[in-house]
Amino acid sequence: MKHILSVVLVVVCCACAAQAEVTVSKMFGDHMVLQRDIDVPVWGWADPGEEVTVEFGGQKKKALADKASKWMVRLAAMDASSKGRALTVTSSTGKKNLAFKDVLVGEVWLCSGQSNMSFGMDGCRGILKEAIDTANFPLIRHIAVAGHFSVKKAKDLPDGSSWKVCTPQTVGGFTAVGFFFGRKIYQETDLPVGLIHSSVGGTQIEPWTPVEGFALVPELGTLRKQAAGAEDKYRKLMGEAVVNVRKWTADTEKALETGDELYLPILPSHPLSKGSKPTMLFNPKINPLVPYAMRGVIWYQGEYNGDEGISYLHKTRALVEGWRTVWGQKAAKKGGPGRDFPFYWVQLANYQKPSDKPAGGDGWARIRMAQTKALKIKNTGMAVAIELADEARPSDIHPKNKKDVGERLALWALAKDYAKQVTFSGPLYKSMKIRGSEAIISFDHLGKGLMVAEKTGIEPVKEVKNGALKRFAISGADGKWHWADAKIAGNTVVVSSKDVAKPVAVRYAYTMNPAGCNLYNKAGLPASPFTTDNHWK
């Protein structure tokens, strides 16, 4: 009896000890970067009612685990710090304490999208070997989020996710766009930079978007209903399937005895079981990151939605505003607390063989316009990449020059978030004025003026003195498009054609691969493709 009681006591004590263990989200670990200047949530799980204490940088915060076992503290806003310090998490029972070392405070950015964001530095080695060999940046850190599609929201990252310090040995696994973005930010600000990488190749924008985002965009009512009711619908269908499964069980048992034919049960599939369905990547790849404190997001996606126009504009709004909403970093409508965190994306690069048809409008022309129009969303930006693909490999959907992509994204952040006096965008179409047989095109983001220039590989953009502008087309009321003569006149471009007496519309680089497009501002940033008509919708 004494032996039995001893065993019972040991089992009970072990169970109590196991229950008392405090855990934290796997977002927190050695070498992580915490966001400066705003409150920093730290969260995890413990027994309901258990008190958890988090200490870092002289702060000591306590919280009780709720009925769902979750606890959270918020560290008060901190200044940047390049000194690695320890963050500790302790439970009131003292059964398990956690300590994370070499924790920095600086700038945290989420890098997401499809394959051109997941494209790693190792893939750039052919043209960017020097950048890899010299990537000794101990204040740049990177964490890659594993996992794939899921119909349910994950509460934590999968095992294996960890922060890496940037060295020539580790940088090969970094997102290349994210690395060059982060390197530029670090070099210009001396602030530690944390890069959270969560992307999946070959994916649409819909699975990255939360239900909250679809609810904010009236034009996406069908997607909203599809996402919002998916789980309830699935439970209802599975409940109905139970009757069939019971019948199948009885039939199968009988068939095994009698030798009759066997058949498989019919079970309903989840309404969001296909990877292109809404929320399927937000659930496992983004939801576990919420509410990790960060400065903002860089995004490279669109190829898989490439035949869309205005619908992609609506979906972009749902993604941006949806993420801001779930993070609690969306400004209140009437001047209350909160902020719209910055969201900067890459306009799709040139791809496939060039077309000689002046009308254009093929391939990704419309979605590039949608990406440009999405700049109306507050606190967003766009890096133009229309000339960065390798001309010798037009069918390669993954341009190797991720250096210019990342650095062009960084210019937006430097200007908008770090108060740097830099030209951050290439020329963007503003307006058109008809003067006789000429169309006068005005632009925003002129910088110090317009120029004709050329870009070769990763070399800097070079001005072409007295060069001719290419890839401008013009049409009259008959809707027929003609290649146009275009010339820079001050801060405008004058477009005309001997075949069009009274122009009504102009297009520039409005095609899948506008090889030779060469309008830049004098900061070396390319003009975005555009059409002045409504074809893109």
Structural overview:
Helices cover 25% and strands 25% of the residues. It is of the alpha+beta class. The protein folds into three domains: 21-199, Immunoglobulin-like, CATH 2.60.40; 230-270, no CATH class; 302-531, no CATH class. The strands form five sheets. Strands 2, 4, 5, 7, 8, 9, 10, 11, 12, 13 and 14 form an eleven-stranded mixed beta sheet that branches. The chain has a four-stranded antiparallel beta sheet with strand order 15-16-22-21, with no helix packed on it. Strands 20-19-23-25 form a four-stranded antiparallel beta sheet. Helix 4 (176-189) crosses helix 11 (402-417) and helix 9 packs across helix 10 (365-373). Residues 1-18 have low confidence and may be disordered.
**Helix coverage percent:** 25-40%
Arithmetic mean of pLDDT: 92
| Structural class label | alpha+beta
Q: Which ranges are low-confidence, i.e. pLDDT below 50, for 5 or more consecutive residues?
A: 1-18
Question: End-to-end span in angstroms?
Answer: 81 Å
The Cα radius of gyration reads 27 Å
Per the principal axes of the C-alpha atoms, what is the gross shape?
Answer: globular
Beta-strand share of residues: 25-35%
Number of domains: 3
Quick structural overview:
The chain has 537 residues and is of the alpha+beta class. Helices cover 25% and strands 25% of the residues. The protein has eleven helices and 25 strands.
Write the layout of secondary structure elements.
Blueprint lengths: L1 H19 L2 E2 L8 E3 L4 E6 L5 E6 L2 E6 L5 E6 L5 E11 L6 E16 L1 H4 L6 H9 L3 E8 L18 E4 L9 H14 L3 E7 L11 H5 L5 H8 L1 H29 L23 H5 L9 E5 L9 H18 L15 E4 L18 H9 L6 E4 L18 H16 L10 E8 L2 E7 L5 E5 L7 E2 L8 E4 L5 E3 L1 E5 L2 E5 L8 E4 L10 E3 L8 E2 L6
Parallel strand pairs: 2-8, 8-11, 8-12, 9-11, 12-13, 13-14
Antiparallel strand pairs: 1-3, 3-6, 4-5, 4-7, 7-8, 9-10, 15-16, 16-22, 17-18, 17-24, 19-20, 19-23, 21-22, 23-25
Helix pairs in contact: 4-11, 9-10
